[in-house]
# Entry
Amino acid sequence: MVISVYLDNEPPVIHCPLNQEVKKESDNPTIKVYWQPPTYRDNSGLPVTIFTESINGSDFRTGSYTIRYEATDQARNKATCTFVIVVSCKFAL
# Structure
């Protein structure tokens, strides 16, 4: 019986969406912001675990926010990507 062992030293590949600007159109202090989730894959073909502290569809105030995602493969190799969301007002306060 032959057992092959594959050592995976290659991190997953992860691609975040582009930076985006969201304009608030009301005097509400926050706006719900949605974005496309990142795409990812691993050379092993096995599942990849994705982690972020940002919740898609959360309420954001005016400002600039860096969204970070981390992808971890089954061999615990990691890759990260980030993008920026800028929330601005369409009207003067």
About this structure: The beta strands are 13-15, 20-24, 31-32, 39-41, 49-51, 59-60, 63-72, 78-89. The longest strand covers residues 78-89.
